[in-house]
Amino acid sequence: MKISDQNSYWKTNLKYLAILLTIWFVVSYGFGIILVDELNAIRMGGFKLGFWFAQQGSIYVFTILIFVYIRLMNKLDKKYNLDS
Amino acid sequence: MDLQTWTWILVGITFTLYIGIAIWSRAGSTKEFYVAGGGVSPLANGLATAADWMSAASFISMAGIISFNGYDGSVYLMGWTGGYVLLALLLAPYLRKFGKFTVPDFIGDRYYSNVARTVAVFCALIVSFTYVAGQMRGVGLVFSRFLEVDINTGVVIGMIIVLFYAVLGGMKGITYTQVAQYCVLIFAFMVPAIFISVQMTGNPIPQIGFGGQDANGVYLLDKLDGLHRDLGFAEYTSGSKSKLDVFFITAALMVGTAGLPHVIVRFFTVKKVSDARKSAGWALLFIMILYTTAPAIAVFSRTNMIETVNNQEYKNMPDWFTTWEETGLLSFNDKNNDGKIQYLADTSKNELIVDKDIMVLANPEIAGLPNWVIALVAAGALAAALSTAAGLLLVISASVSHDLIKKMIKPDISEKGELVAARLSAVVAVCVAGYFGINPPDFVAATVALAFGLAAASFFPAIILGIFTKKMNKEGAISGMVVGIVVMLFYMLKFKFDWFGGGTKEDWWFGISPEGFGTVAMIINFTVSIIISKFTPEPPKEVQEIVANIRIPSGAGNATH
Q1: How close is the nearest chain B Cα to the Cα of A19, in Å?
Q2: pLDDT reading at B478 higher than 90
Q3: Cβ distance of B250 and A33 shorter than 8 Å
Q4: I want to staple B209 with a disulfide (CB 3.0 to 4.6 A). Which of A35, B28, B183, B197 is the partner?
Q5: B433 vs B291, which has greater pLDDT?
Q6: Are B247 and A17 in contact (CB < 8 Å)?
Q7: How many interchain CB pairs under 8 A, A with B?
Q8: Where are the domains of chain B?
Q9: Is A17 part of any domain?
Q10: Is CATH 2.60.120.10 the classification given to domain B3-308+322-550?
């Protein structure tokens, strides 16, 4: 693998990490902790929204994030022929 | 059939299953002993990781803690799942590519130093021993309540089972027993939850049920908030901890999770880098099932418990009340002599003390579920405790036989000799763990937070910097780890054990609790490492090439010495 390829592969990976970790931060620390009181004013059935993010929503999003990352990286590996 | 017969049958069947798997998957080489031969499928590894991770604390205590703390309990839910995102994105793929047996292996090689390796071994041992003590206590608790044997006998039975399959099968045996244990524990956790959800809200899915309405059309969470207000507790959905502390505790648990050696080592058992990512995804999916159900159980059991006991005649209490009183985990003191139970936030008037550990175990009884469901919960709790204990014992034995003996004391030891050493250290580790289970030190509960704080303060920064910066050198990493651990230990000892003059809540630095201090110690570690590395020689060329190499997934090869 060429050095330039290595670098662009790594850069793309870092870009994915930045995007996914931003979402990770927003749903848990953002919605579940920092903005919890504001979101609790909104109701979703029997749940206050902030409480729901802290005890349910953030966990679902975490799981989805990992599967999105798996997909993105599998595609990226294929593009650079690293999926051996 | 009565409860005890059901429990003996279910516990007997599951234990026979674990032993059967152990005999079938004996380890013949060090590679099989440390990393299960390196060919575990991502799905099986995800199941095993979930069981490895979900301990007696997750199964028995977590829903109870949430049911007593409401919103504040969210720190465990987010903290103990969010760490998997960090693991999958920042650690697992690269550590798998690196291809060694243990976490100290990575630290020692990446930082080209046996001092770094020794520091890492020391951290791995402390973290794992504090954790394993809690598991053995969980085993003893279940045995004493459900099988009415002495707690000590219970611990000894648990020790013998773990000893058998961990020593015989190593990682290979542990992996496949953990797969079975996940199935047992998740079934045992879900069945009562579904029963109770239907009973209380008419909805069979607990995750939706706890946002549903009771028979009178009142939302369950509103009803519980109301009950809490009436009894003088903080509102269930709001909690009472400061926002800053909630933030720091959540971060410490997340980062600590990602730094725990017994979790990281599971990702060494798969064939290639993409499998490591996949196993992390599967693992969190399987963990999610339990972690999103736990807050529902918390709400159901809290509501049920308050409605069953508060302002009711003591003499009319159901059987479970007296059985749990006998274990000492539930106690009633009729302060105003009216023969009724008053359950209140005000400690001078409150007459009932409920240990949080019994909420999950007593929940099916409080809801009046059939005996086989209650017995199932006992088998599930044992599966959760044993699977985690086995994973931890393996880390301990690998630290001794591989990192200490093979890598430092006696590098020319034969494969066979190393395997004997690994098995012997597993035996010693089981005995030490059993000792802690029989004589539970007061500090068990306090030190679980220490385990996460230590992992966050030591391993996490060293591993992240080792992967994401080529220039991080041994001087930086070692001083970061040492300063991180020392600061963390100091803070815990000061505020949890009253050393160095002790201190109360008012003296906490920036209002951060010892549980949340791991985040601060982690930041200190990062800062110290980066500053020191600027003023010391950069790592040798070969090491920088290793870093470039672990970032590229192809050609992961097999885990080697």
Answers
A1: 11
A2: yes
A3: yes
A4: B197
A5: B291
A6: no
A7: 129
A8: 3-308+322-550
A9: yes
A10: no
